[in-house]
Write a structure and sequence with these properties.
The complex is a heterodimer.
Chain A: E1 3-5, E2 10-14, E3 19-21, E4 24-26, E5 32-39, E6 46-52, E7 59-61, E8 64-69, E9 74-79, E10 88-96, E11 99-104, E12 108-113
Parallel strand pairs in A: 2-12
Antiparallel strand pairs in A: 1-4, 3-9, 5-6, 5-10, 7-8, 8-9, 10-11, 10-12
Chain B: E1 4-7, E2 10-13, E3 19-25, E4 31-37, E5 43-51, E6 54-57, E7 64-66, E8 76-78, E9 87-94, E10 111-112, E11 116-120
Parallel strand pairs in B: 2-11
Antiparallel strand pairs in B: 1-3, 3-8, 4-5, 4-9, 5-6, 7-8, 9-10, 9-11
């Protein structure tokens, strides 16, 4: 069985602050994929990043960065210099190799206060 | 522009009625998925299809049915057997890992439609 835990239900920060969203996963497979999606108020899920289990290199894309650590089964997401447009629900998800169904966490609602 | 279109955006169901949610994609993706989202919860998989004329049950298939007669279409029917249908329904599609002809970077990423919000009258 696989599981994704996003312990932070809601986070509020003031604009321009940095914020980190936590994601902890459980899987018995050695090969798997991790994802982050953003769900703005409109409802559509927007793909942000995919990481495979054999690539622990951290990734940066503009104000977004991701920290993947297999030792702690974590795939955390940091937004630097947050903006109001970052307000959304963020989901972490896991898929095992060969079984492409996604297992989602319960999401973290991020509110950026102007 | 390529994408996934879900319709209608809002849908109301009367008790005992079956309703069908539409999902169409022009991304040429082989795989399609249906998820249900309840307030404060993550997405749960209802059904998925890796290829035309084939589909599999997900984690919460009871009370739902699907068909996959065309590559670009994957409609979901919420039957009267689904006693708690009020939720937000999301459709997704992807290029499966096993597909040939596409780079690995493009595979196994699910792209989503804008969703259908279903309520019971």
């Amino acid at each position: 069985a696989q599981k994704v835990t996003q312990a932070q239900t809601e986070i509020s920060v003031v604009e321009k602050e940095d914020v980190t969203l936590d994601c902890v996963y459980e899987t018995r497979d050695t090969t798997y994929y991790l994802f982050w999606y953003k769900q703005p108020p409109s409802g559509e899920l927007v793909f942000l990043i995919r990481r495979n289990s054999f690539d622990e290199q951290n990734e940066i894309s503009g104000r977004y960065s991701w920290n993947f650590q297999k030792s702690t089964s974590s795939f955390n997401f940091t937004i630097t210099a947050s903006q109001v447009v970052d307000s959304a629900v963020y989901f972490c998800a896991l898929a095992n190799f060969g079984n492409e169904k996604l297992t989602f966490g319960t999401g973290t609602r991020l509110t950026i206060i102007p | 522009d390529g994408g996934i279109t879900q319709s209608p955006k809002y849908l109301f169901r009367k008790e005992g009625q079956n309703v069908t949610l539409s999902c169409e994609q022009n991304l040429n993706h082989d795989a399609m998925y249906w998820y249900r989202q309840d307030p404060g919860q993550g997405l749960r998989l209802i059904y998925y299809s890796q290829i035309v004329n084939d589909f599999q049950k997900g984690d919460i298939a009871e009370g739902y049915s699907v068909s996959r007669e065309k590559k670009e279409s994957f409609p979901l029917t919420v039957t009267s057997a689904q006693k708690n249908p009020t939720a937000f329904y999301l459709c997704a599609s992807s290029i499966p890992l096993r597909s040939s002809g596409s780079g690995d970077l493009a595979k196994n990423i699910q792209y989503f439609g804008a969703g259908t919000r279903l309520s019971v009258l």
